[in-house]
Amino acid sequence: KLYSKGIDKVEFYIQTNPGEEMGPLAKIASGGELSRIMLALKTIFSQKMGVTSIIFDEVDTGVSGRVAQAIAEKISQISNNSQVLCITHLPQVAAIADNHYYISKSVNDGRT
């Protein structure tokens, strides 16, 4: 069967908790779990493929506290070998950055 983006269709199955059934990533994982899975995949790809720049767009969505700190530390580790651009709303993640850029959105004539 031909799909909109090619002939192959890939679906990831995961088990996020002991005793639970495996299921499709899109149906099983919470927002925080998806964020951590994406961080793990980008970390692996950056190491294996020699990626020099990585963009994380709110990879810390749905997390807080110790998990947010762990994500910040992982991003810091990645930045030792790659340039990282990270969009975040969490102070733990922003605090690890060497440089900060403030970007704001404004409304003009009822549109952003």
Describe this structure in words.
By secondary structure, the chain is α+β, with helices and mostly antiparallel strands. It has a single domain (about 15-95), classed as Rossmann fold (3-Layer(aba) Sandwich). Helix content is about 35%, strand content about 10%. It is built from four helices and four strands, in the order E-E-H-H-E-H-E-H. It has helices at about 25-30, 30-50, 65-80, 90-95; strands at about 15, 25, 55, 85. The protein has a two-stranded antiparallel ribbon with strand order 1-2. A two-stranded parallel ribbon has the order 3-4. The longest helix is centred in the middle third of the chain and has 19 residues, at about 30-50.
Q: Any idea what the shape is?
A: globular
> Biggest sheet: strands, sense, closure?
2 strands, antiparallel
CATH fold group: Rossmann fold
Helix content range? 25-40%
List strands and helices in order, with pairings.
Blueprint: E1 13-14, E2 23-24, H1 25-28, H2 31-49, E3 53-57, H3 65-78, E4 83-87, H4 91-94
Parallel strand pairs: 3-4
Antiparallel strand pairs: 1-2
Helix pairs in contact: 2-3
